[in-house]
UniProtKB/TrEMBL annotation:
GO molecular function, one term: catalytic activity
Coiled-coil intervals, chain numbering: none
Nucleoside phosphorylase domain mapped to chain residues: 23-153
Source organism of the structure: Actinomadura rayongensis
InterPro entries named among the record's database cross-references: Nucleoside_phosphorylase_d (IPR000845), Nucleoside_phosphorylase_sf (IPR035994)
Protein name per UniProt: Nucleoside phosphorylase domain-containing protein
Superkingdom per UniProt: Bacteria
A Gene Ontology BP annotation from the UniProt entry: nucleoside metabolic process
Pfam families listed in its UniProt record: PNP_UDP_1
Amino acid sequence: MTRLVVCAALGVEARALRDPAYTVVRTGMGPRRASAAARLLPAFDALAVAGFGGALDDRVRPGDLVVATEVRTATGVLPCPHADDLADRLARGGATVRRGPVVTVGHTVTGRERRALADLGAVAVDMESAPLAASAGDRPWAVVRAVVDGPGHPLVSPGTLARGLAARRRLRRSAAALAAWAAASAPCRTTETHLPEEAGP
């Protein structure tokens, strides 16, 4: 069986993503906590970072899922070769899925900074994905974010609760796609049986 670990920053995200097919790890919010959690993850064959995120592009609406084609930071880029398979599986489950670069930052992004990141082609922003994705090494990894805020939908506003509940429902419905993606992307573990050597004559 493929060992999938799904990382979520917040308790509400972790509860929405809980599923018997994989292990959910709550990392805490922000890149510092994510970096610390990355060093303590249980053994895995595939890794997913999932939870809420903020849209940068006004074509990405609250409730949409963003699947990262790459994760960007101030110091580099992590390409995600497994993005399309996960995005296709989520779309077949009924989600509106957007694919594109996700930027990991250490603070809430608003206004001019949001527009500047969008101008560089990024579609969403989060605070945890980069250090967790880096910990996967050569194993399959993916990032999926349910959009809560974005241009025209500020994080602190009367509509945030309703948007958050919609995003939570979407995360809950993503469990089957995450498990199927991991099974297809990562080789299953095998148990080797070592027979005792025959004694000589």
